[in-house]
Design a protein that fits this description.
The chain has a single domain, classed as 3-Layer(aba) Sandwich (Rossmann fold), CATH 3.40.50.720. Helices cover 44% and strands 14% of the residues. It is built from twelve helices and eight strands. It has an eight-stranded mixed β-sheet with strand order 3-2-1-4-5-6-7-8. Helix 5 runs parallel beside helix 6. It is globular and about 50 Å long. Bound molecules: NADP nicotinamide-adenine-dinucleotide phosphate. The site of NADP nicotinamide-adenine-dinucleotide phosphate has 31 residues, from helix 2 and helix 7.
Length: 309
């Protein structure tokens, strides 16, 4: 880790010896956040879709932090059954978590359908996080301490507006728009959680890591032809995953006791050290209708049988 970044964050009052569940985390921003919190003796549960990639990441972390407590659990957010089994295991094992960090996401993927035929970007980035929250909020609410529930948004959420038709775009699918809209929906979910959790021990938080050079971008722009030039450009203007992960570390500070939105302070909030800023809400009207539609979609089949709302 760069000394400059670590020394910047060193003075932050981030309580140690907490337990964090993180979705993804085997690479990119999530991986770097894990390194930050392992310096503070966190116990980590990495919820990953590939156990192979998860275990590789764990081994790498153990080289740096030999006595760290890191567990790797399977969670494919693209599978509703997978989400159910994961949540059941958290509850059955009585995991006493302090932080639930919804970090995993996809960007600019080819058109695919997730459960119920919902478009996959929307499913993984938004719906899966909604289901995790619905399934675990009662359990999290019963824990005898504060639980920080962190969503991952993006600065591009500002350009999105989630509509009912975005669940099933079919031929109208646009990779970039799907991402923007899914992250706008994440901001809508954050506002909903703020209402829901007003009198509970759950503290909803949302972070934007900044535009960051990670595998997410490499997968979206494979190094061929014009994309090779795009990669070079991206490397020159994006900031590092280490710096990007500071947005999340920032909201783990003791001083943060209210729901908030945190991201880089630089130009257009694209890169730089973190700060708290106001969430842009101009595009979030009508989200109530979206949650009603989502409930309808999920209630249609077995979700209801499995104890969802
Ligand atoms: N990079 C940026 O410029 C940027 C900007 C704004 C917001 N973000 C957000 O930051 C978060 C982290 O992204 P990153 O940039 O660090 O990229 P990353 O390294 O690709 O991390 C994404 C993580 O999500 C996991 N994932 C994807 N689909 C999944 C699924 N179906 N089930 C479980 N896990 C799944 C990936 O697992 P695999 O390794 O198995 O693919 C990986 O661990 C994402 O939510 C992203 O939208 C990134």
């Amino acid at each position: 880790m760069s000394e400059k970044i670590e020394s910047y964050a060193k003075s932050w009052n981030v309580p140690s010896h907490k337990t964090m569940i993180i979705t993804g985390g085997n690479s990119g921003v999530g991986f770097e956040l894990i390194r930050h919190v392992l310096r503070r003796d966190y116990r980590i549960i990495m919820a990953v879709r590939s156990l192979e990639r998860g275990n590789k990441a764990r081994e790498k972390l153990l080289e740096e932090f030999p006595s760290a407590q890191i567990e790797v659990w399977h969670l494919d957010l693209a599978s509703l059954d997978g989400i159910h089994s994961f949540c059941e295991k958290v509850i059955r094992d009585g995991v006493d978590f302090d932080v639930f960090y919804c970090n995993a996401g996809v960007y600019r993927i080819p058109y695919q359908e997730g459960p119920y035929g919902v478009e996959m970007t929307v499913w993984v980035n938004f719906v899966a996080n909604y289901v995790l929250y619905e399934k675990l909020r009662e359990y999290a609410g019963s824990l005898p301490h504060q639980v920080r529930w962190i969503q991952t948004s993006s600065v591009v959420a500002r350009f999105g507006k989630f509509k009912e038709s975005d669940f099933f775009p079919g031929e109208r699918y646009n990779k970039i728009k799907a991402y923007e809209n899914s992250k706008a929906a994440v901001n809508g979910l954050f506002l909903r959680m703020v209402e829901d959790c007003r009198n509970s021990n759950i503290l909803p938080l949302t972070v934007h890591p900044g535009t960051t050079h990670t595998p997410l971008i490499e997968k979206a722009y494979p190094k061929k032809g014009i994309n090779r030039a795009a990669q070079i450009f991206v490397r020159s203007i994006f900031h590092s995953p280490e710096k990007a992960s500071l947005s999340t570390l920032y909201v783990l500070r003791e001083e943060i006791q209210q729901p908030c939105f945190c991201g880089p302070r630089g130009l257009f909030h694209m890169s730089g050290y973190p700060k708290i800023y106001k969430l842009y809400k101009g595009n979030l009207k009508g989200m109530d209708k979206i949650f009603a539609k989502l409930k309808e979609i999920l209630a249609e089949t077995e979700y209801k049988d499995k104890g969802g709302c």
